[in-house]
Design brief:
Elements: E1 10-16, E2 21-23, H1 33-44, E3 52-58, H2 59-64, E4 76-81, E5 94-96, H3 99-104, E6 115-120, H4 124-132, E7 136-144, E8 152-153, E9 162-164, E10 176-178, E11 181-184, E12 187-190, H5 194-197
Parallel strand pairs: 1-6, 1-7, 3-4, 3-6, 4-5
Antiparallel strand pairs: 2-8, 7-11, 7-12, 9-12, 10-11
Bound molecules: NADP nicotinamide-adenine-dinucleotide phosphate (NAP).
């Protein structure tokens, strides 16, 4: 049995601009292929062949992506969260009616030995639930250092609970620039709570 492996690291990944905006009209407000490649590399990274990550997608975010990106994510199980859809969308592996059901898939007997990390790819309500989840240990949040008109926003979170890391293994530390837009990859780590120390 794999009872000790039932709990998985659960991590948010997003990019937000100066006003914490993340989207506009169902799309990203910016065109930053290098930043998007960082997303792709991060969520597909596993420790060894045969291992998998799981990505949780809200319905809107799932359909905001071109289908071609899903075929470039070989190590990933895609979970779409929706109360209205009735069939698993093309390229996805699971459809769940709520966030917790999606998370619990990673602990199923036939998956718990395979799944390493649960990545949460948004949108806002899915991020909100992820921030509240006890398994959530890291937020990968690219700081897009510019103003964009947005209609969806990354939810506020407590910066004393999730502390910005000066450096983080595997994450470039320098300010990046693409298409005249500066951005910085940032990682916020949950402080160990007292109950865990005891
Ligand atoms: N910059 C970034 O890093 C980033 C990341 C992600 C998304 N975005 C942007 O965000 C926008 C898409 O966001 P969105 O507002 O459409 O949000 P979304 O969360 O992607 O989609 C919302 C829908 O997902 C389902 N859903 C979400 N949470 C749920 C829950 N807890 N339980 C059950 N169903 C749930 C619902 O579908 P039903 O209505 O079918 O129930 C809901 O209407 C796009 O502009 C996208 O580009 C940006």
């Amino acid at each position: 049995m794999c009872a000790d492996k039932l709990r998985k690291p659960l991590r948010l990944i997003a990019a937000a601009c100066n006003n914490m905006g993340i989207g506009k009209n169902g799309q990203l407000p910016w065109h930053l292929p290098h930043e998007f490649n960082f997303f792709m590399d991060t969520v597909t990274s596993v420790s060894r062949p045969g291992k998998l990550n799981m990505i949780l997608w809200g319905r809107g975010t799932w359909f905001s992506n071109p289908e071609c990106i899903f075929v470039k994510m070989p190590n990933v199980l895609h979970v779409v969260i929706s109360t209205t859809m009735r069939t698993v969308p093309k390229h996805a592996h699971f459809l769940c009616q709520d966030f917790d059901t999606g998370v619990s898939l990673a602990s199923l007997p036939h998956l718990c030995d395979l799944v390493e990390t649960i990545w949460v790819a948004g949108g806002p309500q899915v991020y909100q639930e992820a921030l509240m989840h006890p398994w959530c240990d890291l937020i990968y949040l690219t700081n897009i250092m510019a103003d964009f008109d947005c209609d969806v926003f990354f939810p506020p979170f407590d910066k004393s609970t999730f502390v910005k890391q000066e450096r983080f293994l595997g994450v470039p530390n320098q300010i990046q620039e693409e298409n005249g837009v500066q951005f910085k990859f940032e990682v916020f780590k949950r402080e160990i709570c007292v109950a865990e120390v005891i």
